[in-house]
Amino acid sequence: MFKDYAEKIRHARVYDVAKKTPLEPAPGLSERLDNRVLLKREDLQPVFSFKLRGAYNKIAHLNEAQQQKGVIAASAGNHAQGVALAARRMGLKALIVMPKTTPDIKVHAVEQMGGEVVLHGNAYDDAYEHARELA
């Protein structure tokens, strides 16, 4: 089972957009757990998170008809940026629904990544429901 999972990772459609990031030793955690622990530095990705990998992989597997419609997502953070960047790299439209309470810095980051932002509701659940309505 692990071998199949590792093979899926090697062939995931993320390497067009995600950077290779280093594994760094975590000596304190390794000592505490009495095991070798390495940290994957996904904070070095263009959106400072691993969220880009999942967003790009999902969008890359959409069929042509789905891609023509663009993508809609609800998020208030790194997932929104990952979806926006992944869509831009693939030449697709990305509409991101974010709560009105989302900090401006997060909204601007999504816009800089190429996403169109719609602010709706005061909480994630409100934004999520609105995104589903728009879809």
The first-to-last residue Cα distance is: 35 Å
Helix run count: 7
Mean pLDDT: 92
Q: Order of strands across the biggest sheet?
A: 3-4-5
Main β-sheet description = 3 strands, parallel
Counted beta strands: 5
Elements, N to C (H/E):
HEHEHHEHEHEH
User: Rg, please?
Assistant: 17 Å
Poorly predicted segments? none
The CATH class assignment of the domain at 63-134 is Alpha Beta
Provide the fold topology.
Elements: H1 2-10, E1 23-25, H2 27-33, E2 38-40, H3 51-60, H4 64-69, E3 71-74, H5 78-89, E4 94-98, H6 104-112, E5 116-119, H7 124-134
Parallel strand pairs: 3-4, 4-5
Antiparallel strand pairs: 1-2
Outline:
By secondary structure, the protein is α/β, with parallel strands linked by helices. The chain has 7 helices and 5 strands, in the order H-E-H-E-H-H-E-H-E-H-E-H.
Explained architecture:
This protein has seven helices and five strands; from the N terminus they run H-E-H-E-H-H-E-H-E-H-E-H. With 135 residues, it is an alpha/beta fold. The chain has a domain at 63-134: Rossmann fold. The strands form two sheets. The protein has a three-stranded parallel β-sheet, with helices on both faces. A two-stranded antiparallel sheet has the order 1-2. Helix 5 (78-89) links the parallel strand 3 (71-74) and strand 4. Helix 3 crosses helix 5 and helix 5 packs parallel to helix 6 (104-112). The longest helix has 12 residues, at 78-89. The N and C termini lie far apart (35 Å).
